[in-house]
């Protein structure tokens, strides 16, 4: 593997691992409430599961592409610019959006502040 491939992959891995998602929010909460040793157990297990998931998806996609070469055409079509409804649906089903919304409402409002 060349350095020209390792550097971009490392940057992607770093950005993916520090982006605010459900695991990072629970890890932050765990680190704030419990001793460092318990927080490290959580972070280590989350990291190992991510590596297993990464390898399974990589090998699975590879096997699909070898078995069904036309699957690459479907993937290319699926990766095109989404239309309005698709973007709407993606954001509505985005767990980060739900967590960020709930966290910001909980952090910046008091009981009874929001009225309809």
The overall average pLDDT, rounded, is: 81
Which spans of ≥5 residues are poorly predicted at pLDDT below 50? none
Largest sheet: none
Give the termini separation: 57 Å
Give the class from helix and strand content and strand pairing. Answer: mainly alpha
**What is the ordering of alpha helices and beta strands?**
HHHHHH
The tally of strands reads: 0
Number of domains: 2
How would you characterize this protein structure?
The structure is a single chain. About 80% of the residues lie in helices and about 0% in strands. By secondary structure, it is mainly α. The protein folds into two domains: about 5-70, no CATH class; about 80-110, no CATH class. The chain is flat, with a radius of gyration of 19 Å. It starts with a helix and ends in an 8-residue tail after the last helix. The model has no long low-confidence stretch (mean pLDDT about 80).
Annotation keywords:
single chain; 116 residues; mainly alpha; 2 domains
Write a concise synopsis of the structure shown.
By secondary structure, the protein is an all-alpha fold. The protein has helices at 3-18, 22-33, 36-67, 71-78, 84-92, 95-108.
Helix and strand arrangement:
Blueprint: H1 3-18, H2 22-33, H3 36-67, H4 71-78, H5 84-92, H6 95-108
